[in-house]
Automatic annotation (TrEMBL):
Family classification: Belongs to the PrpD family.
Organism the protein comes from: Pengzhenrongella frigida
One Pfam family per UniProt: MmgE_PrpD_N
GO MF entry, a single one: 2-methylcitrate dehydratase activity
Designated name of the protein: 2-methylcitrate dehydratase
Keywords annotated in UniProt: Lyase
Taxonomy of the source species: Bacteria, Bacillati, Actinomycetota, Actinomycetes, Micrococcales
Length: 502
């Protein structure tokens, strides 16, 4: 890996294209380096993971609405939409939109955390949709996804957005555009222009993850993927982008990030160096914000020691800056303590999540968020006894470069009504690569089959998993096999969401 300094340049500098970050991404996208077997295997895992959570959300309102919009934009050859027959195709940008929402709705797929946050599995829907539409092969898809993950993860390592209240999907637009470019074998000039447009059109504030969190949290990454598809389409037609998009004196760094004096250091593989970033990422065993994963596991471990939670006087979670200020009491969001809050808000309340996991000894993507569960008097009482505190050591470990040091958990201190103090800590979730039960292909398959129960019939599950097993060897034109069909009766009320413009 080589570090690339990136800063603002006055227009008078006429910064050479080859020194611009967007060009470096484009050069990375066209590098013909082979994809390592472990990377190809993990890409297959994440395709399974995305399908699993899409199956679980297939009848939820945001997924139904997005699918209705995709259905209103049929085209040939087109791209598949989760839940619909593979022969029923939509325009690729709308298929990417619908599938992206289905994947993101439950906040239940993969994650990478460093200076910034990300769900790099969001790259897969737009890259797959375009690859299907253009009749590409399994290997083309694998190469494209490897590029998308590499660029998003490297941006997350080197360029923090959230400190400036910019939403993390601003890194997704460029990564998806570059991944599409790789999958299609486009020239670097085209990819360069598409990356610039994708960044320019996918920059938004973090209000989508603050206060009353709405369904837009699921739509935001899908919108970035859709914009990436459209950006590539325009670039292929010869349209250009604002340049330099990152380094311009009125550009991204100068006005939206740390300003003209700041220098960002972005790590990127050199020519001929494998794109391995996906191996640094991790998925979720539980449907909740990633920083809650280890704490859910810790709550399950501590629950039997507590017994009757009515005995609890207080619970303090000592954790990282991010956990405290984004999903903890440091956020100062009263909605995070409100029993009538939306599912999306509860997903970002570690106080609620820890209380329920402590009482139930488990976490479920539907039951744990049910309104009647959130309103249970004993849960509300316990929930309001939970607080978080930033611990500098956990913040240091959150930002550590060494994987053995990097941690996303915390230390929990539970004080009972008789003064007894129970204390335990957990650095990483059980499902993390360094956790107690790391996820590999069998666990991804188990997650898929669990979430697909009563949604996708067994024969269709088997067919989909067999297609993923063949992923690098799928011939051109066979990528439509990487979807699943659901009985129309299980797809939710399409008519109730079809009253829009389209």
């Amino acid at each position: 890996m080589k570090m690339h300094p990136v800063r603002t340049h006055p227009s008078a500098d006429r910064l050479p294209r080859e020194e611009q970050l967007a060009w470096r991404f484009a050069a990375l996208a066209v590098d013909p380096v082979d994809v390592e077997p472990a990377v190809a295997e993990m890409i297959g895992n994440r395709i399974i993971d995305n399908a699993a959570v899409a199956a679980a959300s297939i009848a939820r309102h945001p997924a139904v609405s997005a699918r209705a919009q995709a259905v209103a934009h049929p085209t040939a050859p087109g791209a598949t939409v989760f839940g619909l027959a593979a022969a029923r195709r939509s325009s690729p940008e709308w298929a990417a939109w619908a599938n992206g929402v289905a994947v993101r709705e439950l906040d239940y797929h993969d994650t990478f955390l460093a200076a910034e946050y990300s769900h790099p599995g969001d790259n897969i829907p737009p890259i797959l949709a375009v690859a299907q539409h253009r009749g590409r092969s399994g290997l083309d898809l694998v190469r494209g996804v490897a590029t998308g993950y590499e660029i998003q993860v490297d941006l997350v390592k080197g360029m923090c957005l959230h400190e400036h209240k910019i939403d993390h999907v601003a890194h997704l637009g460029p990564s998806a555009a570059a991944g599409i470019g790789t999958a299609l074998g486009l020239d670097p000039e085209v990819i360069f222009q598409a990356i610039g447009q994708a960044l320019h059109t996918t920059t938004a504030t973090r209000q989508s993850r603050k206060g009353e969190i709405s369904s837009w949290k699921a739509y935001a990454p899908a919108f970035a993927g859709k914009m990436a598809v459209e950006a590539v389409d325009r670039a292929m037609r010869g349209e250009t982008s604002p340049t330099p998009i990152y380094e311009g004196e009125d550009g991204f760094i100068a006005w939206l990030l740390s300003g003209p004096e700041h220098v960002y250091q972005i790590p990127l593989p050199g020519p001929g160096e494998a794109k391995r970033a996906i191996l640094d990422t991790y998925t979720k065993e539980h449907s909740a914000e990633y920083q809650s994963q280890a704490l859910i596991d810790l709550a399950r471990r501590m629950g039997p020691l507590v017994g009757d939670t009515a005995r609890v006087r207080s619970i303090v979670i000592h954790t990282s800056h991010h956990t405290h200020y984004v999903i903890g009491t440091g956020a100062n969001d009263p909605q995070k303590m409100d029993p009538t809050a939306s599912r999306e808000t509860l997903d970002h309340s570690i106080m609620y999540i820890f209380a329920v996991a402590l009482q139930d000894g488990a976490w479920h993507h539907e039951r744990s968020y049910a309104p009647e569960r959130a309103a249970r008097p004993d849960t509300v009482a316990l929930w309001h006894k939970v607080s978080t505190a930033e611990d500098p050591e956990w913040t240091r470990r959150y930002h550590a470069v060494d994987p053995a040091e990097k941690a996303f958990g915390g230390r929990v201190v539970i004080t009972l009504d008789d003064g007894t103090v129970l204390e335990d800590q957990l650095a990483v979730a059980d499902a993390h690569p360094l956790g107690a039960r790391p996820f590999a292909r069998p666990q991804y398959i188990e997650k898929f089959r669990t979430l697909a129960t009563d949604v996708i019939d067994d024969v269709e599950q088997d067919r989909f998993l067999a297609a993923v097993a063949e992923l690098p060897d799928l011939p051109a034109g066979e990528l439509h096999r990487l979807t699943f069909t659901v009985d129309p009766a299980r797809l939710g009320d399409l008519a109730a969401t079809s009253r829009g413009i389209f």
